[in-house]
Amino acid sequence: MKSYNIIVLPGDGIGPEVINQAVKVLTTCAELFSFQIELNYDWIGAAAITHTGETITENTLKKYEKADAILLGTFDDSTADRDINIKNQNEKGLLNLHHFLGLFAKIRPIKIHQQLLVKSPLKSKIIKGTDMIIYQEMSESIQFIPEKKNQNSPSELSEYSIKKIERIGHLAFQTAQKRKHTICLMENANFFEISTHWKNVIEKLSKQYPDVQLKHLDIDQAAIQLLVNPLQFDVILTSNMFDNKLTGLVHEISGSIELLAAISTGNSTTIFQPSHSAFPEIKGMDKGNPMAAILSVALMLEHLGENAAAKLINDAIAWCIEEELTTLDINNQNPLSCAMVGDMIDLFIAKNGTIDFDVKSINRDIFYI
C-alpha cells in the first residue's frame, strides 16, 4: 500500500477552517482508494509567530523537505494587518520557504463551472468554456534582488537568467503539449528590457516544441483580451512582475476566487494551496468556502499519481455546485456553512458518487447570515 507524508499548514484567518475540510476529504479518499497518509501539522504565518515567535524555523524547513507534499492554508489575519512587523515577517517566512524548497513555478489552473457563469462580471457567452492554466516564474525578479535605498531616488532591479526562464518555459510547453498545443507569453517588451529578454529566450526555446504554437501579448493588451475573449487562451506564461495583475483579473472574471487553487513547485516538495486570502472578517464564523482548499487536495493527489481520487473530488465539487450546496460567497439565498459543504463533498466521495437522498431535504436553517 502506498503511503504519503503530508505536511499540513493551516495558517491564519479561515485557513484552519477550510483546511480541516480538505483534510477530511483527503482522509476519506485514502480509505476509499487504499493508500495511507501521514499528516504532520505545523504553524505558519501569524499563527506561528503567536505560538513560537517565528514565522518559520530552520528545523521546520528541513522537515518539509522530506515530505511528499505540503497542504498550505492562508496567510495573514487581522493581527498581521495591524502590525506591519508581523506582516513583513510573514512575507519573509513564505519567501524563505519557497527558497529553501527550490520552488520556481506558481501554477494556477482557471476553470469556470457552468453553474457559476452568472457570478462573473462578464457575460456568460464570453466566458463559457474558459479553461486555462497560468505559469508564473517565482524565483527571480524585483522582489529577490536588494533594492538601492535612496529616499530621493529609489530604485529596484529586475534580473532573470536564461537558465531560469528556460526552466519554467519547459514546464509550460510540456503542459501545452498535453492540452491544446498553444501557449501565450505575456510580458511588456515595449517598455522593459527584461521582457524583451524573456521573449527572445522563449522564442528560441519554442523551436524544441514544434507542435506548440507560441504567441506573444504585451501585458496591457493581454488584460483586454482576457476580458473580451478568454476562450482563446490555454497555457499562459509570465514572469513575477506581471503575475499579480494577470491573476487578479482572472480571479475576478472566474466568479469566485474561493473556487481556485494554486501549486508552487520546483526542485523539492510541492505546495498546494487555495488562491484566496485569509478573510479575517469571517474567521471562526464557519462561513468560508472550503472548495479551493479541497481542490488543492485534488491537485495534490493528481501530483502523487492518485488520479482516480482526484477525479472523484472534482466530481464531488461539481455536484455540490450544481445542487447549490455552497457557501455564502456564491449562494446568498440558501447557503451552507463551511463544515456542511465539506460534509457534502465528503459524503459524495464516501459513496463513490452514488447519492441516494434528496438534497432538498438538507436542513439549512442551522446556518445564519
UniProtKB/TrEMBL annotation:
A GO MF term: 3-isopropylmalate dehydrogenase activity
Isopropylmalate dehydrogenase-like domain residues: 5-345
GO-annotated cellular components: cytosol
Transmembrane regions listed in the UniProt entry: none
GO biological process: L-leucine biosynthetic process
Highest taxon listed in the record's lineage: Bacteria
Keywords, in A-Z order: Amino-acid biosynthesis, Branched-chain amino acid biosynthesis, Leucine biosynthesis, Magnesium, Metal-binding, NAD, Oxidoreductase
Pfam families documented for this protein: Iso_dh
InterPro entries, A to Z: IsoPropMal-DH-like_dom, Isopropylmalate_DH
PANTHER family for the chain: 3-ISOPROPYLMALATE DEHYDROGENASE (PTHR42979)
Name of this protein: 3-isopropylmalate dehydrogenase
Taxonomic placement: Bacteria, Pseudomonadati, Bacteroidota, Flavobacteriia, Flavobacteriales
